[in-house]
Amino acid sequence: MNRDGTGLHRIIKDEKAVAMESTWSPDSDQLIHTDFVGRPNQFSLQLFKTDIHGLNSVQLTHEGDNDKADWFDPAFAYPVQPQPHLLTTMWGEIKK
């Protein structure tokens, strides 16, 4: 879409798709969204990923209800095991 609102095009090609809670990838070339899967009274919420052209749509989740996706950047991940160079306080100094 252009700045003035012209050039609008549909990214999610499925006319029946609801495409809720959409989130752009950090480089803005993919979109993750939540959609209903199943029958009207027996549906679940699942996550889908598609590119900006609406091609290559992939269902990412298949069981239970899944929504509110976000992109993960490993550069900003916190370690599971303590890393001394990332600690803000040294326990030895507190015990003194």
Describe what this molecule looks like in 3D:
With 96 residues, the chain is mainly β. The protein has one domain. It is built from 1 helix and 4 strands. A 4-stranded antiparallel beta sheet has the order 1-2-3-4, with no helix packed on it. A hairpin with a 2-residue loop joins strand 2 and strand 3. The radius of gyration is 20 Å and the shape is flat. The model has no long low-confidence stretch (mean pLDDT 78).
What is this structure, in a nutshell?
The protein has 96 residues and is mostly beta strands. It has one helix spanning 91-95; strands spanning 20-24, 30-39, 42-51, 58-59.
Class from helix and strand fractions: mainly beta
Number of domains: 1
Strand content: 25-35%
The mean pLDDT is: 78
Tell me the span between the first and last alpha carbons.
Answer: 61 Å
Extract low-pLDDT stretches: none
